[in-house]
Write a structure and sequence with these properties.
single chain, alpha/beta, TIM Barrel, 12 helices
């Protein structure tokens, strides 16, 4: 079955949801991983996309997302601060870009940002682009209006990130203060102003295998160029703080199935990957991961960017600055 579905995808066909569920449950793990690797190589070659972020506003979020430490509904140790200065954004963007990272994003807590906050962030983006003209800028700022997104686009932001988090059939179990339709409206507005979108989710939040497949198809139908695959990292104080972590095989199988469903997308290592061993991270890249959030913070002594770049190179990948549409169209 695995070989038949792989051959169909390599020839331009698609997988069904029932077939994807069967693959996710398949005991033939190594065959599944190898097939996903071949699909990745066929459509994406050895290109690998890197990005880094700055937490531009933290904590005090009014939303009740059960996985999130920044929600004001839960008692966690998350930092709380207002929008960071343009100089701090420029310094961190430049620091990571010098290590070979191709994209940089401001990420902010909260349901949405005020017009004043968007004005402040637009100043930061313009300053980042002046200091690093070839650095691609992204944004992850919640549910924005089209005029706010236009202002960001005019300031140099070319990609907007808004995760759907989980399958539509499961979302209301995890969040009640906004909807996936709200998120879709933001992404549609981002596209109208000229941005590409980055949209994925989190696995390991108690969803069923079928719902994991449902998420893979959901982001496919949204036409996401970049699909972040987050792995739940249980945080004390949140409702999901005592969740049982996924096994490494469950994670690798999910990555493989996301690749079968989305053969031409960048599957991006995102939150939670630090839980994985170095060997499992390398296997994930072999199976289908071809993008990652990486980078060091100016305020800490770290080697994540250096170590990630070395790992990417050792896995035979080449960090790419090219536009995503070279590989993907929707």
């Amino acid at each position: 079955m695995i070989q038949d579905i792989k051959a169909r995808i390599l020839s331009g066909g698609e997988i069904t949801e029932d077939e994807a569920l069967a693959l996710l449950s398949s005991p033939n793990k190594e065959e599944l991983y190898q097939a996903a690797h071949e699909i990745t190589e066929h459509f994406m070659g050895n290109a690998f996309d890197t990005c880094s972020i700055i937490n531009a506003k933290s904590g005090n979020c009014p939303e009740d997302c059960k996985w999130c430490a920044q929600s004001a509904h839960y008692a966690t140790s998350a930092e709380r601060y207002a929008v960071v200065s343009p100089s701090a954004c420029v310094a961190q963007a430049t620091y990571n870009h010098k290590q070979g990272i191709g994209r940089f994003s401001l990420v902010a807590s909260g349901r949405r940002q005020t017009d004043r906050e968007i004005d402040m962030m637009s100043v930061s983006y313009r300053a980042i682009k002046r200091a690093n003209p070839d650095l691609k800028c992204c944004a992850s700022l919640g549910l924005l209006s089209e005029p706010q997104l236009q202002k960001l686009f005019d300031s140099g932001v070319t990609t907007y990130h808004c995760n759907m988090e989980t399958a539509p059939s499961y979302f209301r179990e995890l969040c009640t203060t906004h909807t996936q339709e709200d998120k879709e409206a933001t992404l549609e507005a981002a596209r109208r102003v000229g941005m590409r979108i980055c949209c994925g989710g989190i696995i390991g939040m108690g969803e069923s295998l079928r719902q994991r497949v449902e998420l893979a198809f959901y982001v496919k139908h949204l036409g996401s160029y970049s699909i972040p695959i987050n792995i739940l990292q249980p945080i004390e104080g949140t409702p999901l703080g005592t969740s049982t972590p996924l096994s490494e095989d469950e994670i690798l199988s999910a990555i493989a199935v996301f690749r079968f469903v989305n053969p031409k997308a960048y599957l991006r290592f995102s939150g939670g990957r630090a839980q994985l061993s170095a060997e499992t991270q390398r296997r994930a890249i072999y199976v289908g991961i071809n993008a990652a959030i990486t980078g060091d913070l100016l305020t800490t002594i770290g080697r994540q960017a250096e170590e990630d770049m070395q790992m990417i190179q050792e896995c035979g990948k080449v960090t790419s600055q090219e536009d995503w549409e070279v590989h993907y169209s929707y």
